[in-house]
Amino acid sequence: MIYIKNARRAFENAPIASNALIDISDNFLTDFLTVARWCAVNMNVPEYFRKSFGMSDEPYGIKVEADASKESVVNVLVEHARDFCKQGGVHWEWLYQQMADTDSRLLLLTVLTYRALGWKYVPMPLDSDAFWETMRLLSDMEAKGESTQSLALSEPVNLKKINLRQIGYDVELFSEAFGIFNEFIYSQYEYRGKRNVYAPQNGDVVLDCGACFGGTSLYFADRVGATGKVISFEFFPDNITVFKENMRLNPQLSSHITLVPNPVWDDPGTWMSIEGKGPATQVYVKNPKEKRADSPDSWQVVSTSIDQTVADLKLKKVDYIKMDIEGAEMMALRGARNTIKKFRPTLALCVYHKLVDFYELPEFVNSLDSSYRFYFSHSTVHGDESVVFAIARDVAMPVEIESPIVIEAERVQQSVLKEWFRGVLKRTK
């Protein structure tokens, strides 16, 4: 198919689905299996990036016999892709039809093919020269930063104090190279249409559900300005320690950030147990029949809900809700019914924790307000960080530009960015 690159996605290659499809049809299964077969025949990705990052393996793909013929391997992979879709059935078709632009459809097909076939057969759009060069530069900045040894943490975390003023942000914080990339340079919680970018605006009220160390909250605070507000939900003690230090380092932004030290759930006042640490911290209901614990300690927390928080803080509006809460997004949405119906905020919902979240979260939003449009983005070189954006129809729709000028604009943007980083690092040596 003829695919014109999106100039606002300077760090991304075209989704591999654009190579596989002659044209996009109106049938999800047809397009998905076409992409799966094309990838099985043509692709052989040389490196598994999660291993390079020291991350755990993903449960994607299927083992094929080492001595099997190419044709046999392709057939096994395509049948596995077909089985992969069976659980969702008509839900995948519904989601595909709801995607509001071509970029979203192509990226959805690419990510789902990755989850069906595994890393070896599907390169992600972010696996680009521009991304890797930027990561090398950010890693150099990270290496020069101060560690978190001065903070009273129960376990060490691999973060460094990084001064972002050298790259144009009036921010200093404890983070790491990829965190800086996907929170500040190329935020995963903004949707980059070919014409418009959907992101928090000056004066907006933003709910940051899953604030972790506070990087995204600081970015949102910079976006909304002094007249806006950011409400940050984070409950894990060590995360809060780093969060508070990052707020202390940035008083010009933290003055309009409010921390809510509770997990968001459908029902406020539920006692929950903490499991995990850092960005992957999860919560579980301790006892569904009890609303309190006899002796709560630091590993137990009590829930709130978005509707309850909006009432407690007397918020007169909510413009933007971001959720990255390790699979608890559906429960949090159920506790935000009134807020969504009343204020119709833009939603940035992480769906990668559970496969069913890809369609169940937008289906739930649609059940509350059928006027929402849906978009899809993905912000890593592996299977994490897939986000569905729900945007009310009275927000200006992006207009797709189909012009060769777009391609040249992207080249210029990448070139300028690279030279800018080189100059910055040279001046700071």
Automatic annotation (TrEMBL):
Matching SUPFAM superfamilies: S-adenosyl-L-methionine-dependent methyltransferases
InterPro entries membership: FkbM_mtfrase, SAM-dependent_MTase, SAM-dependent_MTases_sf
Tree of life domain: Bacteria
Keyword Transferase: yes
Every Methyltransferase FkbM domain range: 208-364
Keywords in alphabetical order: Methyltransferase, Transferase
Molecular functions per Gene Ontology: methyltransferase activity
A GO biological process held by the record: methylation
Listed name of the protein: Methyltransferase, FkbM family
